[in-house]
Amino acid sequence: MKAQSQRGVALVITLIMLAVVTFMAITFLGVARRERASVSVTEETTTARLMSEAALARARSETVARMFAGTNLLSYDLAVSTNFINPQGFDPAQLPGAWNPTNVNYDYRRGGAPLSRPTASRSSPTSSSIRGRPSSSP
């Protein structure tokens, strides 16, 4: 009888060990998945930080380049974003609070009227036609 009870105990111990190994494998898979997600978040955060630092360095270098391009260090002109330009002109009738990133043109209103009176320091007609100035000819 002693041999049969030892066999029963061996079976119970084997089943307990199998349950422990299964639990540890499932825990390991969960930890590995969480670590992978953590690495992805860290990578995206690092990429965003590096891109913002690069943009800041570029803005600084463009400002300094404008300062050193002329003889007066205080005359560096305005830096205007030209990412979005509506070739049909700026629409002042847009509703207040309705944000539209394509309603941008720094030269002309919709219909061809200039936003401000032209001066000698404004860009030449060639460069403004490149930036989307509506042509006056039909």
Helical amount among residues, as a percent range? Answer: 40-55%
Give the overall shape. elongated
Number of strands: 0
**SSE order:** HH
The computed structural class is mainly alpha
Total helical segments: 2
The fraction of residues in strands falls at under 5%
Mean pLDDT: 75
Ends apart, CA distance between termini: 109 Å
Radius of gyration: 34 Å
What kind of oligomer do you see?
Answer: single chain
Poorly predicted spans? 121-138
Explain how this protein is built.
Helix content is 54%, strand content 0%. With 138 residues, the protein is an all-alpha fold. It has two domains: 1-76; 80-138, no CATH class.
In short:
The chain is mostly helical. It has two helices and no strands.
Keyphrases for this structure?
138 residues, mainly alpha, 2 helices, 54% helix
How do the helices and strands line up, and which of them pair or pack?
Layout: H1 2-69, H2 125-130
